[in-house]
Amino acid sequence: MRNDQTADQSGLVSGLVSELFGAVYDGADDEVVRLLRAGVSAEAMDADGVTALYVAAVTDEPGIVRLLLAAGAHPDRLSEGTDLPLCGAACGGHTEVVRSLLAAGARADLAEEFGFTALSWAVQLGRAAVAEALLSGGADPGLPGPDGRPPLVAAACRGSVDTVRALLRHGATERRAALDEARRWLGRDIPGELRRTLAEGERDEIVVREVPEGEGVTLIAELFRDDESCAGREQQTGHGAIATLLERDLGLRSPFGELLDRALPFQDPQNENWTESVAELQRRGDEPTYRAAAALTRSPEPWRRVFAVDVLAQLGFTEGEHPFAARALPLLRDAAATIPGPDSTDTDTDSTDADADAAQSQLIQALLLAFAHYGDPVALDDVLRYAGHPDAAVRRRVAFALDGLLPAGHSAGTEVLIALSRDADAEVRDWATSALAGADTASDAEPDAGSDAEPDAVRDALAARLADRDPTVRAEAARGLALRGDPRAPDALLRLLEGADPGGYAYATAQEAVDAIGDPGLRRRLRQTVSRYRG
Hints:
This protein is mainly alpha-helical. It has helices spanning 2-26, 29-37, 52-58, 62-70, 85-92, 95-103, 118-125, 128-136, 151-158, 161-169, 175-185, 190-198, 239-250, 256-263, 272-284, 287-296, 302-313, 325-337, 354-374, 380-384, 392-405, 411-420, 426-438, 457-464, 471-483, 489-499, 505-514, 520-527; strands at 205-213, 216-225, 228-236.
């Protein structure tokens, strides 16, 4: 009888453990709580020795991880005798799980099988946020990985700019070796190398994809055999930016042309290799850099001109100081004059050439941003010229630039902003409405002679945006009306404060606008409004 009871109890416990694993895989927090209360051990293992905590860590279930830890699961218990929960979470890029394990006492530098630590996994896989969490949690930024490479060198090889930044912030060593590693990758045919490392037979097909990741690009190569995926490799491409960062850290100075060469292959002013090269040259703010950029504005290659304009846009800028403005601004205006306007039929580029169109659009955007940074109304006509450009990205820059360039009472510019506030693109409407909201209320006085803009045109344009489908646009419109004491503002602010995400920009803008409400009682009521936002 006792043997039968023991078998029954064993079967019951086994069944509950299976239920626990099922709940963990399903992400069912409440069910995990029920089973733990029913007596299932937080350190339960399945038949293969896999721990429930490890499963929760690798499947990115931070809530369940915390439940298991609170119920007694040891954060450093090996799963199957080889795998650490912290390493599993690091591999998957599960930052919140990593933080929870560290908070529960997991040792940041503990190694699992083959000598891998969580940081070595994070660095090898380019998990920058995880690396930052581990370093903040005590991981040694200089502890070599199982291959003997220091983390900073491994991160430079991977091409992960954000991981390099995290390691530098935490005092990583071997900076010169990391720079040598980053430079070793410059100019290499990375897609070709990925193909070569994966190719095995004649029937193999290798597909390389570019995946945008943050401000960079990750190349993912996948090997297919008989239409089935067999293997893969990844490589990030931020080696130029990493070299620039490390050179600055070491007090080294690369020539203008070398920094240009790190940026150009990506043909994207938002790419990390481009932005780091531009920032380094702007920071120098010296005469040789000005002359090199000025000469490059006359290049027949449009992407080189984009780079030059980006450099000149804030060359040598410090607080209130624009040392090259007197020479750079006329140069930028001359560059703008060579680009056909959106309505021009006089164009030197083939409209069917998508690459040429993209380069020209980026050049216009760079010029508009430069005019915005210099903030001199002398460039106002150059900005207004592109208000009707077919590329929404250009129109966004027009609205952004007008926010700082438009003099009070300039009716032609105000009319452009009003038109842009009705744009089909939400970001254009947002920037234009923001500019209208903050525009000098001198527009309530007499408009320019001969203008079609009426004194209340700005108010009416803002009121029209109170029904915009984008909450950020609605918030900017309400802010503008509140600043003008318009009676339509309070109700609009009330709706935003009740319905907007308390963590979002629209809610913060509405809260800020409440200060402009003149009636103290109404202002107090609005401040006490609680959002009913449910995500």
